[in-house]
Amino acid sequence: MPDIQWSAPGATLSHKNGAKEFGLTEDEVIRAIKEGTLHYQIAHAHGNPYFRVVREEVEALVLTLYGPDYVNQQQLKKRQDDIDREIRKLKRRIKALEKERLPLSGSDQ
């Protein structure tokens, strides 16, 4: 097995997250694992097994299957989803802070 950084932050992801993030089906990821295109480690979360795969290899798989335009499109979509998620989080935080401020503004200053 080649020298792979399994412990580097962000270097690996689950096969399900890899499929979701790069727009693949789980079957495509599993097929690539069986063909030896993707290296994997078996891990467990809450007693449920999953495959840890190398992010760079998943990106290379997507490039060979769908081309660079598809990869760019998926990266833009993921970035937009991340931004939307952050906006929703900040809106919830603002709402909580406004509720906290409400009783404070009623007192004499």
Structural commentary:
Helix 1 crosses helix 2 and helix 3 packs across helix 4. The protein is α+β, with helices and mostly antiparallel strands. It is built from four helices and three strands, in the order E-H-H-E-E-H-H. Strand 2 and strand 3 form a beta hairpin. It has a three-stranded antiparallel sheet with strand order 1-3-2. It folds into two domains: 66 residues, no CATH class; 42 residues.
The helicity comes to 55-70%
Alpha carbon gap, first and last residue: 69 Å
Helix-strand topology string? EHHEEHH
> Describe the biggest sheet?
3 strands, antiparallel
Low-confidence stretches: none
Widest sheet: strand order?
1-3-2
Counted up, domains total 2
Q: How many helical elements? A: 4
Rg calculated over all Cα atoms = 21 Å
Beta-strand portion reads 5-15%
The global form is elongated
Number of strands: 3
Assign the structural class, choosing from mainly alpha, mainly beta, alpha/beta, alpha+beta, or little secondary structure. Answer: alpha+beta
Mean pLDDT: 90
